[in-house]
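Q: We require from you a single protein entry containing the residue sequence and its fold in token form, and nothing else.
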Amino acid sequence: MLLITGLMWKIYSGFKKSTRQEAAVFVFEKNQLDKWSRKDRENMIVILKKGVHQLTRLKHPRVLTVQHPLEESRYE
């Protein structure tokens, strides 16, 4: 079920299979960048990856935690 569609990310409700703990799944579809120039697309992807990497290092009880790092897929 789709919860929120925001700027570039789609957020789905889900759960962690191993613990059945509720989770939010953030999905970014690269085809949203098709209307941008190649340089801008590449810069945006670098920025998104860097942001996810920073979130994986952030530890705070009132902030989202990253259960699985960024995964890329060829599926469009």
About this structure: Residues 38-57 form the longest helix (20 residues).
